[in-house]
Predict the structure of Peptidase metallopeptidase domain-containing protein.
Amino acid sequence: MFPVFSYVTFFFLLLSFSCFPARIIPGSLTELTVDRHNDTWRFFERFLDTGKGSHVSGMSELKKYFQRFGYLPVPNTNFTDVFDSRFETAVMMYQAKLSLPVSGKLDSKTINTIVSPRCGVSDTTPLEDVHETRHFAYFYGKPRWARVPPMTLTYSFSPEDMIESVNSSEMKSVFERAFSRWASVIPVNFTETEDFGSADIKIGFYSGDHGDGEPFDGVLGVLAHAFSPQNGRFHFDRAETWTVDFETEKSRVAVDLESVATHEIGHILGLAHSSVKEAVMYPSLSPRTKKVDLKRDDVDGVQALYGRNPNFKFSSLMESDISSNRAVGLQIRPSRWATTLVVVVAFKFFLWTR
Ligand SMILES: *[C@@H]1O[C@H](CO)[C@@H](O)[C@H](O)[C@H]1NC(C)=O
Ligand SMILES: *[C@@H]1O[C@H](CO)[C@@H](O)[C@H](O)[C@H]1NC(C)=O
Ligand SMILES: *[C@@H]1O[C@H](CO)[C@@H](O)[C@H](O)[C@H]1NC(C)=O
Ligand SMILES: *[C@@H]1O[C@H](CO)[C@@H](O)[C@H](O)[C@H]1NC(C)=O
Ligand SMILES: [Zn+2]
Ligand SMILES: [Zn+2]
């Protein structure tokens, strides 16, 4: 047992120095230090600066978080409060996936990312890791909507489970814009239908346990989740302060509806979480932040599933994105092999623990 851990740990340590230099951006430490009184996950701040060997009461709760998002297997017994080698490996996998410096410790960047609100969809599943690279990813089996082209998917709002704070005309235009961003890059059309029962994509706002085994958790924490193709369920946590305009909504916990909608449509179409921080498909989103424009990583991922919309031109979409990617890409390219190794080692680790 022990040699395997050391082997895995060794690889991660090795790679942490060689793989991710492009991600260490000076001055980005402050990005998530918002005031978080009582929010879901704030409790985890107590684990700041802990590492292997630490024993802090409540650590088992953090292990549950890691398990929930795909970094730890379900244990045979309850999780302990000890920061053991298995947890260290999970922390490293998390750091690699979220493009944080891979230290294996709960440093401030890592804790800030952990407590930051995010999507409820798991980042990795044991088998999915094989397909994963350091950019976009798919769900296991690479599911997609299989329709004869030209493809049109219908969406509908739940007749019962909507919110009052955003009126129906605003709601409709938010989703129209979010769907049209994806439709502009792939040959798929989205149209709204009044018939919720028969719609391909079913949108609603729910509180707590709402019957799909993925209960929502109140203010911040998990914001929303959506299912992979061809399921179409598209759920938002009703407890959030969903906002269309930060000028009129001053709450510190306000969350941009359109940004989260755009992200979840990516899941509906078959994209899993990306490691590219700027991408719409990155798992976390700070409160009071708008992130609605598809990045090249999102576009490449979805076009690999559905092909390219004939009217789509890269040049018009994202000049700045492409140039910034080029700068980062140069540094990342030599480590592609190393990245594959991380994935394979992680995969073996999971197989071995099953
Ligand atoms: C924090 O949560 C506790 C219990 O959930 C509640 O009693 C308290 O009023 C909350 N405090 C704030 C500042 O929201
Ligand atoms: C796990 O913890 C729960 C609640 O603390 C306890 O009821 C249960 O007996 C524990 N199970 C094991 C296998 O230790
Ligand atoms: C989408 O709708 C537009 C306008 O109605 C139409 O021209 C186009 O062919 C449609 N594309 C697909 C893939 O259905
Ligand atoms: C919906 O809300 C927006 C912004 O708050 C407002 O401008 C618009 O008039 C409202 N529409 C309806 C139908 O109430
Ligand atoms: Zn997500
Ligand atoms: Zn749900």
Summary: The two ends are 13 Å apart (CA to CA). Residues 213 and 308 are 35 Å apart (CA to CA). The longest strand covers residues 151-157.
